[in-house]
Amino acid sequence: MSDFRTLSADYSVAPQISIEDVAEAKAAGFAMLVNNRPDGEEPEAPQGEDIAHAAAAEGLAYAAIPIGHAGFSHAQIDALDKLLGDATGPILAYCRSGTRSTHLWALTRARRGDDVGGIVDAAANAGYDLSPLRPMLDALSGEK
C-alpha cells in the first residue's frame, strides 16, 4: 500500500516505493518519479532501473538524484530545481523513509525564496521534522 505524503500541490514524497506503487502513482496523477536513493543502499529494495522501467511502462517520467551519506550538495539542489521548473505535472519523490526527499525539496524551495515557515509547516504536516535544517533553510532563503 502506498504512503504518498503531500508537501505542495506539485510535490509529494514517499518511503521506498514498490513496483506496484508506480501504477498507484500514475493513478494518483503524478507525472514524474524522482529517486533520491543510491542504488545498492538496500539490495532487497527495487533499484533505480527497476523503478525507471516500471515508470516508463506507466508513461511516467523518471529521474534519479541520489543522496547518500555525504549529504546534500548544491548540485542536487540545482537538479531538483530544474526538474521542478520543467515538470509537466506533480512529482513524487522517494527514498528510504521520505526524509531525504523532503529535505531536498525544502532546501530547493528555500533557495527559491519560499517562506521558510511555510516549508517547515508543510513538512511537519506530512510527518517530517525540519527543525535541524532550519538554520540552513534560513541561510538559503537569503541567497536570492
UniProtKB/TrEMBL annotation:
What's the protein name? Beta-lactamase hydrolase-like protein phosphatase-like domain-containing protein
UniProt feature coiled coil, ranges: none
User: One Pfam annotation, family name?
Assistant: BLH_phosphatase
Which InterPro entries does the record associate with it? BLH_phosphatase-like, Prot-tyrosine_phosphatase-like, Rhodanese-like_dom_sf
Q: Boundaries of each Beta-lactamase hydrolase-like protein phosphatase-like domain copy?
A: 3-110
Q: Mind listing the GO molecular function terms for this protein?
A: hydrolase activity
Q: Which organism is it from?
A: Sphingopyxis fribergensis
